[in-house]
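Lecture notes, unit on binding sites. The following record was shown on slide 14. It pairs a sequence with NAP.
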Amino acid sequence: MVATHAPDTIRMIPDSPRETPMPDPTSLATKRPAAPASSWGERVTIRPPASVLARLTRGVWRQASRNPRCPATPRLDGRTALVTGGGRGIGVETTRGLIARGAEVISASRKPHDLSLPARHLPLDLADLGAVARSVDSLASLLDGRRLDLLVANAGLWPTRFARSAQGHEIAFATNALGHHALIRGLQARDLLASGARVVIVTGDIYVMARECTPDFAYRTALGGQLAYCRSKLANLWQMRELAARHPELCVVAVHPGVVASELGGASRGVGGTVKRALLLSTEAGAQTPLFCATQPGIRSGAYYHNALGRVELASDDPAADSSRAAAFWDLLEDLVTSQLATGTD
Ligand SMILES: NC(=O)c1ccc[n+]([C@@H]2O[C@H](COP(=O)([O-])OP(=O)(O)OC[C@H]3O[C@@H](n4cnc5c(N)ncnc54)[C@H](OP(=O)(O)O)[C@@H]3O)[C@@H](O)[C@H]2O)c1
């Protein structure tokens, strides 16, 4: 079935047997209660990046009613998962959701998480390549011969002012992109990822505002920090694309969780916080798309899932669809990680 609309709107294209069921093509435009999971994994084509504003608006419009609710099954008993940034925000709700389904979860972040969370905590500072390598060592001890069935690369930083990582790289690049690359490559080098493991990389659809991501990006204002964040989220899509292509033994996806009232970019208190919580998704709702991609059958490696749009097919001129830029970015990350390992400087 094909339902083609005007060029600037979403075009539904046929489903394949490996995907979740095809929804009613009108569903994206219809006001309805929170989308049942079975109607959410639809394939869509997004208009090219010339319409960044339209795309971001379309993603947020009535997002609460289009956000999926991840089914409670299948159970994950006996499965082991690592969630970066699993101690607060979307990450803590993702951790809770995985535990509720029976998984053993290790939550990794700089600060210890809430002790009421029945997950083990792994100290991890993604903004320091030396610390990431030490965390991989600690994880190997924690796992004690087992391997991870699932990695949710969720941790993220939206800088409000310019800062550098331990190795001197711009902080959003270092935390959101390079640190996760070092972690994943470290897990692979130590054979800590099971064959067939899922890797869910949490990006943000705001990446469409960026065209580039480099370690030497400099800025003076909070607006520059926003752009640094967008660049790092574009990087996350390039990482997903390359990891999926180079490692077919893994199932690798990128996820936009929705626009969520978390502490990203700083905690909002008082009236600002109240307004934010009223307008945006709760962190529990924001965890549903990562959980869906982490747990459900029919998830396609190399795909990008958006909380309100389902599986997104990127237009060929979307910055995230640029395979040569993605490959070059992968090489850059490899060089930076390798040179850190060679010098051993923290
Ligand atoms: N909120 C949104 O509207 C939104 C929209 C699109 C995408 N996302 C993405 O969703 C993910 C989760 O964000 P959130 O909204 O839940 O934000 P959050 O509440 O600020 O949580 C961020 C998490 O990242 C961890 N983290 C930050 N820097 C780290 C570092 N250097 N090393 C290790 N962990 C670090 C934090 O833990 P510690 O501080 O303890 O280290 C925290 O657990 C991010 O990737 C974000 O880009 C969010």
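Take-home: The longest helix spans residues 222-246.
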